[in-house]
Amino acid sequence: MDYLESSLPLTQQPLFMLSGDAIVLLGSNGKIIQLNAECSRLPGLNSKDWLGCTFESLLDKENGHTFATHFQGALRGLASNLEVEFPERGGQVTELQLRLIPVDSDGQLFIYVVLKDVTDQKRALQLIEHMAYHDTLTGLPNRTMFQIQLTQMISASLGSSEEDQFAILLLDLERFQMVNDLLGPNLADLLLKQVGERLQLLVGFDCTVSRLGNHEFAVLFSRFGDSAEIVEKARSIHEQLMVPFLVRDREIVIVGSIGLAFYPQDGTDMNGLLLHAANVQAMEKEYGEGVYRLQQGDFGANARLRLELEHDLRKALEREEFELYYQPQYDIQRNELMGAEALIRWHHPKHGMVSPAQFIPLAEETGLIVPIGEWVLRTACRQNKQWQRAGFLHLSISVNLSLRQFQKHNLIGDITQILKETELESKFLELEITESMAMDNVERVIRKLNELKDLGIRISMDDFGTGYSSLQYLRRLPLHKLKIDQSFIRDINHDADSAAIVSTIIAMANHLRLEVVAEGVETAQDLQFLLLQDCRHAQGYHFSKPLPAMEFERLLNEGGELLSPFYVQP
To answer: Cα 449–452–457 angle (5° rounding)?
Structure first.
């Protein structure tokens, strides 16, 4: 049998007298006959008033019903465990763990009820569970909870009608890091809390607002009549977020970029929906307000293509799918071919020639630009050395450095090793950096450029005029050459401002004893203007498009003099 038998009086048995747990003795009618001394130590409970009461009557209706079920089992001789909430005075609740033990005494059945206070334990577990699924700063559900809820909504929607669609909204606070840097982390945290509160008020409490990361939030829209309703809600959120936040007497304006995805139109699983929303968000950042949702067909194809290109890009080097093209650079005053700029091309086995505009940003994002850049540098140096051995002794090669390459700790060592491997003299290598790279950390940039200069490598600043370089720093940078951005060259013959900018850059460079290369020269009129302004070097489609190595070598063998048909002596 499950119940106990003993010849001792029930209230004198060791289980009752010596237990460190509170114990209540019940008769078969459910009324409390006796309590041991530990009952008086239960926090918040007046156990002295319990005698003569049924234990069930001390509980609320739901917990009383649960206890009654277990008590009926005890009357049948079954021991059992349960947990109940015991109401205290003042509205507090004590969590009790109960163990019901039936006892036979001289043919009569009694029930021991062992009580254990587990309130602190339960609250600690609830706190741990809350912390696991909620953001500690804002109190909002975190990324884990968001993904659980999203997965549950997808599972609940499988096989249902399209009327049961739902939507997710991703929100990223732009320039938040700047706010953090300016105001400090404490005020930035207060701002994040206010953003979370405002979002919840804007979407209502029928929708779930989550904080996914530092300055990333998400909203789950579970019920709505039409997708247009959610798009308008997104527009409203975008506008209302720009209403200034008041953080300790400071007014802070923050802008959010938004991406929406609808189930099932934009994805039928969590990854598909999140990818769609994230890419719409990226489009919002690039093109501005209004791009909240792209057409499903176009967007799905673009997203898949992006993932495919990223995967294939990782294999492209080992599969030898890259090729360098070379665009001739001319000394237009002497009508001489003086060098070439190396430009990478990707022969994709499925998509054919992939534009650098597509894969270079992807390579930058993924970090693949570093090994790709090293391959470009090594290949260009090796090719130039081959041309020199073929008799073109003074040809220089120009290679663009990416920001990640330039920031690499061992850049100087890598370049030195490549020059040693290819046996190219350093004076025939020219490295191009952009204005934004030069201004990233000026003192560090100056040190690194001086190291390159000490090796005998020439340095040019690419796309000059489009950045924000200071003349003070420009004077200090160890540059040999400025390359005027083609956007100015393109308009010099019909836009007075562009013409003035180009003339000024050429004059300034000449005074600073810097060489100038005009990029994007496309017409004889462009060339004539540059000659009149005393510009020395140029490149562009007027002379030649970028050429594969064999075609460029053919140009070298023909003498490279392509200017005479276009040049008119002023």
So the answer is: 120
